[in-house]
Design a protein that fits this description.
By secondary structure, the chain is mostly helical. It contains eleven helices and no strands. The protein is elongated and about 75 Å long.
């Protein structure tokens, strides 16, 4: 193999960040396929009660046991993925979109809009997220829709601060100055030059926000402010199993492990993505 061919191969070899993104998307696809297969293959329904098999331990018929109504815990964990991961994904994406938009506006619209938006952001930061979410959920009433609204109202501030800071830094770069001299409008500069450069850092922050939101959704459901039975949400399952913690601990162990593993995997993925971005710089 000649030197020129080695140079050509090194130029066409995908970057570690690209390979990591490719593997991550492949892993997500495999998990989605496994989830759909499990939902199709399970012989039980998420609300199907069997009073003759109440509080059964893990067995060949019920791999994760049954709850106090005889419902299969494994099936409820699978269906709970849509509630726990799905709701937290919606909330975290809403915070990402709203916070990024406000941060870019604050970073590019001038001193007065920047000052006003930052004061509003600081006001929301004055309250811990979970306490503020509990307050909003208590005011609106306990329901799934109000849970999403309450968590969305307190999920955008970190994205606003980060996107504003990055936008101000990038706006001083030479390529942005050149774009202004070429006559591009402020909106086009934001979309074409600033936004693509802030997205990677925002995605790292989003992964940690998603994992925190999983904990918040499960925590609020456990406190009675979120998803209510018979919906198979992991926090609601923990609430159902609390009364049987000593006699049938599997009712709380498996939903707790589902929350733990989900948060751990998302955080590790975000940490790896952050390390690759730092190495790229």
């Amino acid at each position: 193999m000649t030197l020129s061919s080695l140079q050509t191969q090194s130029k066409t070899e995908p970057s570690p960040l690209f390979r990591f993104t490719q593997r991550t998307l492949g892993g997500i696809a495999l998990l989605a396929l496994a989830l759909c297969t499990g939902l199709w293959a399970t012989p039980y329904g998420p609300t199907e009660a069997d009073f003759l098999n109440r509080l059964s331990p893990p067995s060949a018929a019920h791999w994760f046991g049954t709850d106090h109504l005889g419902r299969d815990i494994g099936t409820r964990l699978l269906f709970g993925t849509f509630w726990s991961l799905g709701l937290s994904l919606v909330v975290s994406l809403a915070g990402l979109v709203v916070g990024t938009f406000l941060g870019l506006v604050a970073g590019a619209a001038g001193r007065l809009p920047d000052l006003a938006l930052m004061r509003v952001t600081d006001s929301f930061f004055a309250f811990p997220e979970l306490i503020a979410a509990v307050t909003f959920a208590g005011l609106f009433g306990p329901s799934t829709a109000n849970l999403v609204i309450a968590l969305s109202l307190v999920s955008w501030m970190k994205f606003t601060r980060l996107s504003r800071s990055l936008a101000k830094t990038i706006a001083e770069q030479d390529f942005v100055t050149q774009a202004r001299l070429n006559g591009l409008s402020g909106g086009l500069i934001l979309v074409r030059h600033i936004l693509p450069n802030v997205v990677p850092s925002l995605l790292v922050l989003w992964t940690s926000s998603w994992s925190r939101t999983i904990l918040a959704v499960s925590g609020l459901s456990f406190l009675g402010f979120g998803v209510h039975p018979p919906a198979a949400e992991w926090g609601a399952m923990l609430l159902d199993g609390k009364a049987y913690m000593q006699t049938a601990p599997h009712l709380m162990v498996f939903p707790g492990l589902a929350v733990l593993v989900s948060v751990l995997v998302i955080n590790l993925t975000g940490d790896r993505f952050r390390d690759l971005l730092a190495a790229k710089k």
